[in-house]
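Worked problem 6 (solution included).
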Amino acid sequence: MNNYSFYDQLQMLEPKKDEFSKGERLRAMEKPLLSWYKGHARILPWRENPEPYRVWISEIMLQQTRVEAVKPYFERFMEALPDTAALAAVSEDRLFKLWEGLGYYNRARNLKKAAGVVMEQYGGVLPASWEELKKLPGIGSYTAGAIASIAYGIPVPAVDGNVLRVISRVTGSREDILKQSVKKQMEDLLLGVMPREGAGNYNQALIEIGAIVCVPNGEPLCRECPMASVCIARRDGLTKEIPVKTPKKARRIEKKTILVLDWKGRTAIRKREDSGLLASLYEFPNEDGWLEEEALAETYRVPLTAVRCLPEAKHIFSHVEWHMRGFAVELQEKPAGDYLWVTPEEIRETYSLPGAFKVYTMST
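Solution. The predicted structure is:
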């Protein structure tokens, strides 16, 4: 007679195909999943001290950004802005410089907005409530669940793309995971089965297994998965078909000419509009379409000393692609226009230019 519980036995062997409900299947994977996480969790700076503020900043940074890319940004951000009060008080330009290279700058704007609300309404401490957290700017259901469970131990789910993929495969779901209704179904399902103690580790284990085993691109590493024996997609050879996603619309392509204008050793930058793509960020002057070299003098109505072609570059946003050509232009006279004329050092240290201009920033 062994000492396995009902769910330990289910993890080892499901007597009849599809005999168990989704909830039973998920309960069966809990202990193996947590055991796997204990031995395989990556060492990450925000996990070392999972205080609410640190968890919040890391989760916002990790949206649309790889873990390895986030690590140095997180360390630098925490050194510069160690708490909610510092974040609420920071200037937008300084905040954007700290964020430079992470992209999706609206995340940074919402961090500052939310910090202001937390200072005014919660005494500078993020609320220990899933529902209250979701009311803060830039904090959706997933981020609220991550903060609530990891920082406060509240047993609520944190369902991101990794978790949607893992649960879809384990349960054999063919629902479209890009639908909000499907995400809500997954949240409700997990809310009913997740452990009352150790909710933070449970959520992180699901996210981790999706990041490094049940991977988003390529074949999942089923031989390394602690949930393999209860996974329907693995059992039925459906890992290439599940999860189901609505195909994305093709991105719109826009041609741009980027101009690195030099006048007396200073470079022209300007601030973008307060709304729309890359709102309120600095940029090099640019024109729609691809200008030819001979058109530059006419465009800026000043004599040119020298013109040098810069590399072509492409930058992908969520709904649009910029296909860029660039010129480094030495001007004999200062052109009209609402420009800031800055030194290369000021570009590196003070003014935040989006990653779309990275190739051209390197030329200053």
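Discussion: DSSP finds 17 helices and seven strands in the chain.
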